[in-house]
Amino acid sequence: MLKPLAVIFEYVLMKKIYYSYYLIILLITISCNSKGKETEIVNSKPNILLLVADDMGLSDIGPFGSEIQTPALNRLAEQGILLSNFHVLPTCSPSRSVLLSGTDNHIAGLGAMGEMMTAEQKKNPGYEGVLNKTVAALPEILFEAGYHTYMVGKWHLGEEDGFKPSDRGFEQTFVLLNGGGSHWPDQLPVSPTEPMTYARNGEEIETLPEDFYSTKNYTDNLLEWLEADKVDGKPFFAYVAYTAPHDPLHAPKDYIDKYKGAYDAGFDVLRTERYNKLKELGIISEDTNQFPWNGVKWEELSEEEQQITAREMEVYAAMIDYMDAQISRIFTWLEESGKMDNTMVVFISDNGANGHHFTAYPGQTQEFMDSFNNSLENMGLPNSLGDMGPNWASASMSPFRLFKGFTTEGGIRAPCVIKLPKSKKSNESMIHSFGHISDLMPTFLALAEVIHPSEESKSTPPMMGKSLVPLLTGDVENIHVNEGVGYELHGNRAYFKDEWKIVSLVSPFGTGDWQLYNLSQDPSEINDLSVAFPDKKEELIAGWNVYKEYVGMVYPLN
User: Which residues contact 377 (CB under 8 A, 6 or more apart)?
Assistant: First the structure.
């Protein structure tokens, strides 16, 4: 740009043109045109909106067959692509460590959840209990590449200075640093040893507004930042990590009232309805069998127990409905500001639905749980402590086996809806090929045309995922051909390779022995094929052992 300006200026002096007014106009015009081109180049980078629900089941949104009202996500699915075979990790913080590093959780610092890490594990790299500094974090990379980086919601990857989201590349943050707690301003924790801590741009917040509700206020903050920066020509990465529908189950009363009576038929009926709807939508095949659930039957509950249990599901549904309404606000802003076309939108859940009661939380006491008002009238409102429980969770994860915490499909198969930026064309509406949460970071970097630091420095661990772009655009049918993907969390293990999977669960849910399944025929993991295909089983076990050594796993049962 400077050379052409110098030539023009020299020409003007040589010809003794002293009409400075015209010269100034000429220079301003050239300069403005140049700036316009620079802005155009920056704007060609796609915006990235990453929406993550917390502990939400596979079929809890409309695109995956839910009766819960989710018009915003329905619209997203109509514009985008459903991934019916998308996998996350069994619990929240390990899943999020993979999401933001593109590596394995044992490399990124969450080889086990920090709250449940053994003393032996804590001595080893990959078990720091935080998103460690060994890995390159997605927001760090995108910020360096000229992106605005925003985060609202649940972090759960480190509460100490140096490990907060504001220390890992996020420019603007309003976050819950720890794993969960009240969605109201009272900041009541889920157990006495798990206090809640909110922070804004690294500074802890003592008091929340009186009208605070987590999902609303997260959205308010994001929209404020988007609006403030909307004309500066920079693309944005927005990580919206809603804490809904994580327990305690809380929602605005008018949303709870919308679902009054909706679940009076019970969880057995819902499990069947969701199963049938998934088949109708083609998300699972017609010949997929439902994993047999051996929990309590609805008719075995007393009338009072049925009322309370149904209300818990009503509140859970209300949380998802309200979350969808807040997502709609973000979509409206994108559309009205003309940014939707150039925005990639991804919606996922971090793990399967949560079937564990409050009694399972570390440090929990009966005295603490009894201090809440869990009357039918107060359930879902401030000072209540409701959870989903295993029966509703099994309905949300139908037809799959178990739920959050397990390496079975019920713990790690998640809803995934993706809308590509307009520059990337796709004729796909649903993809059944295997996808993994580690694939998202390579996808974002590929679209942003940004290289990963491991390509320039061997000291940074490379990403383990693959870009989904060729899969989403229909250029390939599978991005994980003949490549294994390993799992281990708190002793529960799994390994995928093509249509095959081995699973090992610790007692009392399993014996610790490996089981073999063909997911193309039996995604519900009902028929163990270990005896029929011993060579295939040994092949996958060998693959898992290689994976174990590569990630530096410290297996808790050794």
Answer: none
